[in-house]
Amino acid sequence: MPLYTNSYTRKAIIxxxxxxxxxxxxxxxxxxxxxxQEAIDLRKSLHILFTKQSTMMREVLINKYADETVNSxxxxxxxxxxxxxxxxxxxxxxxxFLDVESEHSSLLVEQLIHLTTVHWHGIISVPLCFRVxxxxxxxxxxxxxxxxxxxxxxxxxxxxxxxxxxxxxxxQLGYRETVQHLLLFISALxxxxxxxxxxxxxxxxxxxxxLPLMKNGELDSASLECILLEVLxxxxxxxxxxxxATEVSPALV
Length: 253
Prior knowledge:
Elements: H1 2-27, H2 36-47, H3 52-56, H4 59-73, H5 81-98, H6 102-123, E1 131-132, E2 136-137, H7 139-160, H8 164-172, H9 175-186, H10 189-203, H11 205-208, E3 214-215, E4 218-219, H12 221-234
Helix pairs in contact: 4-5, 5-6, 5-10, 6-7, 7-9
């Protein structure tokens, strides 16, 4: 048992070190890397912003993007489903979390989408940071540069905009913590996850789109929730996860 425990502990420590060292440089301090009491406190602070009452205030914005997405998909033209959902989710996240929309700030939205894409490519690249003047730079170093530009834009938006979400976030967290969490919320991570779920939902419609589940041509909320949960179970947007036990489980003894 001691040998097994020591081996398991070493692997856990190595995994935590690699994850923290690699991803922390890309995302900085936020809920992803918090542990213990710090994580508990952060969750409590952020939970207030995602309660049913809080999200109802943003339903108009969400419904607007949902309607535009559905209407464009049933227009008759062929649609690359995942790419379509990903672009919509990127724009929605920018509107929700940073109060930036294409109809008012199209150039800024394009810049942010480009930077979040470059930033994401650093996550799926080899974590080597190098830059050869006038020749090339690694994807990882480009991602770190994109991160700094994103943080600068976030700081500018915080100083000039009165968006409801980041105003509430500032009330719950300090300035630095707000900037770091907005980097996470507007990054490509969230839109890619949502786009993956919606793509799986649409592409599996032949499995659930039959009459017994439909009422007046629409899914009721209970059926929709069950289908989405099954989609998440069958086709999760991300593979795996990281959890480090703080104590040895009796099941391992």
